[in-house]
């Protein structure tokens, strides 16, 4: 029927179709992976191939919200831009009023609140954006938050949004995330997860690493190439071993 | 009652402010830092009603940080001066900020520059400036001793003479002054 006309209307079986369609829009965005380590948080984004005439440097999927908070998003770039600007204003306003940095929970809640308010008003549509926010709690522990077009937000140990196959990457993370990952391991896990859906090569992904009290570090292309090459070598060796093992098993069975 | 002054030298600017926070006959503290770092290469100091000065400076600092986050680049000194003046002007016919300002900044395009603003939203680019009662004494010292292209030592010597003049001739005792320098490397505190 036409329960997807105005977003302020529920369908008979309790769906808000516009919100669900917004989540579909997120799935069509390029992939973002977030991994929380023992003392670091890594955000990795897929960098889709740019048109020949386009200047790749002006396309940014990882943005700074505040001195200690970084955000990456999947979905409509334009919607994300608006959301990020609202969040930045809120962060500065908080700093002006409270003379203190806003906590990551506060910022995630604010962004989620904004996204929710656009699902309960006439004449507007939801933001077609899911975001991942990385930062640290007051006790220096790393934190990763996720928001979605419905306005839900929660903290995660690791997650993936957008990309060719969101589910596959999420399953990969579930299988491979362990507690107390060192920074290098968190980076490797993020790259491996991205490689599930992204073509290999440092020009196809961008990684941002956050540590407590330090400005966020975007990995240089050379650094990323080394890590990707290392991971691929590991995969090759694992394949050879598996092939060798099955060959050995084959010969023994003949006997 | 604030004494606030600044000068431009060769590739740097010195901003000086007294460090007393007082009301009527009572001095609260002698280590009040009135010179705000707006960002890595700008200093803003206000003289006037303490609440307005502090609040306005913080407001400007937050807005310049927002600009930097949104645009990935710092606003130039010239741009900031005009932005600040605009805020003063808008507030003037509503609820004026009773704050007289000096803005010193470094940017790659214009080098070091100093801007003088008053609470009625006037704006001028200057080589040296002063606000408060102290201006009556300090401007005379600057008129006589300021020269174009002074190095940091010479600039600090002029500042030392200004402070000496205040201590000799100004009625109000201001034992402590805070001095900050802005140049290509950023902002830092200096001592005489």
TrEMBL record, chain A:
Pfam families: Proteasome, Proteasome_A_N. InterPro entries: Ntn_hydrolases_N, Proteasome_alpha, Proteasome_alpha-type, Proteasome_asu_N, Proteasome_sua/b. One of its GO terms (biological process) is ubiquitin-dependent protein catabolic process. Gene3D superfamilies: Glutamine Phosphoribosylpyrophosphate, subunit 1, domain 1 (3.60.20.10). The keyword Iron does not apply. Keywords: Coiled coil, Cytoplasm, Nucleus, Proteasome. It is found in: Cytoplasm; Nucleus. Residues 3-25 form the Proteasome alpha-type subunits domain. CDD domains: proteasome_alpha_type_7. Residues 221-248 form a coiled coil. PROSITE patterns: PROTEASOME_ALPHA_1 (PS00388), PROTEASOME_ALPHA_2 (PS51475). The keyword Lipid biosynthesis does not apply. SMART domains: Proteasome_A_N (SM00948). GO terms for cellular component: cytoplasm; nucleus; proteasome core complex, alpha-subunit complex. PANTHER family: PROTEASOME SUBUNIT ALPHA/BETA (PTHR11599). The 26S proteasome consists of a 20S proteasome core and two 19S regulatory subunits. Belongs to the peptidase T1A family. This is Proteasome subunit alpha type.
Automatic annotation (TrEMBL), chain B:
It is found in: Cytoplasm; Nucleus. One of its GO terms (biological process) is proteasomal protein catabolic process. The keyword Iron does not apply. Gene3D superfamilies: Glutamine Phosphoribosylpyrophosphate, subunit 1, domain 1. SUPFAM superfamilies: N-terminal nucleophile aminohydrolases (Ntn hydrolases) (SSF56235). It comes from the Eukaryota. The keyword DNA damage does not apply. PROSITE patterns: PROTEASOME_BETA_1, PROTEASOME_BETA_2. Signal peptide: none annotated. Belongs to the peptidase T1B family. PANTHER family: METALLOPROTEASE TLDD, PROTEASOME SUBUNIT BETA TYPE-1. Component of the proteasome, a multicatalytic proteinase complex which is characterized by its ability to cleave peptides with Arg, Phe, Tyr, Leu, and Glu adjacent to the leaving group at neutral or slightly basic pH. The proteasome has an ATP-dependent proteolytic activity. This is Proteasome subunit beta.
């Amino acid at each position: 029927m036409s329960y997807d006309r105005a977003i302020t209307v529920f369908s008979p079986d309790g769906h808000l179709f516009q919100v669900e369609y917004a989540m579909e829009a997120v799935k069509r965005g390029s992939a973002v992976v977030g991994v929380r380590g023992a003392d670091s948080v890594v955000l990795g984004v897929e960098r889709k191939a740019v048109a020949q005439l386009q200047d790749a440097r002006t396309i940014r999927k990882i943005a700074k919200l505040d001195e200690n908070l970084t955000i990456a998003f999947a979905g409509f770039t334009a919607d994300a831009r608006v959301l990020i600007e609202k969040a930045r204003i809120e962060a500065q306003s908080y700093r002006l009023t409270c003379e203190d940095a806003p906590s990551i929970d506060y910022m995630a809640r604010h962004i989620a609140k904004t996204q929710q308010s656009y699902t309960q008003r006439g004449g507007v549509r939801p933001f077609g954006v899911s975001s991942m926010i990385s930062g640290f709690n007051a006790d220096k522990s790393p934190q990763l938050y996720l928001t979605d077009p419905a306005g839900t937000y929660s903290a995660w140990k690791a997650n993936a949004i957008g990309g060719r196959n969101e589910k596959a990457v999420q399953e990969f993370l579930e299988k491979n995330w362990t507690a107390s990952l060192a920074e290098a391991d968190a980076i490797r896990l993020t790259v491996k997860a991205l490689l599930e859906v992204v073509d290999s090569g440092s020009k196809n992904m961008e990684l941002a690493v956050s540590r407590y009290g330090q400005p966020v570090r975007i990995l240089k292309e050379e650094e990323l190439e080394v890590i990707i090459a290392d991971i691929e070598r590991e995969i090759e060796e694992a394949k050879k071993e598996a092939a060798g093992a099955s060959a050995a098993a084959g010969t023994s069975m003949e006997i | 009652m604030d004494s606030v002054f600044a000068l431009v030298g060769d590739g740097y600017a010195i901003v000086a402010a007294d460090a007393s926070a007082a009301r009527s006959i009572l001095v609260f503290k002698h280590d009040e830092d009135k010179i705000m770092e707006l960002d890595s290469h700008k200093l803003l100091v206000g003289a006037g009603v303490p609440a307005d000065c502090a609040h306005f400076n913080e407001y400007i600092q937050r807005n310049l940080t927002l600009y930097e986050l949104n645009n990935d680049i710092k606003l130039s000194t010239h741009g900031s001066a005009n932005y600040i003046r605009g805020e003063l002007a808008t507030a003037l016919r509503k609820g004026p900020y009773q704050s007289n300002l000096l803005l010193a900044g470094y940017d790659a395009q214009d080098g070091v520059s100093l801007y003088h603003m008053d609470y009625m939203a006037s704006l001028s680019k200057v080589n040296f400036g002063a606000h408060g009662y102290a201006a009556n004494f300090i401007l005379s010292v600057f008129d006589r001793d300021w020269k174009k292209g002074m190095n940091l030592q010479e600039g600090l010597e002029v500042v030392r003479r200004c402070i000496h003049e205040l201590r000799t001739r100004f009625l109000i005792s201001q034992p402590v002054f805070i001095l900050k320098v802005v140049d290509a490397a950023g902002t830092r505190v200096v001592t005489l």
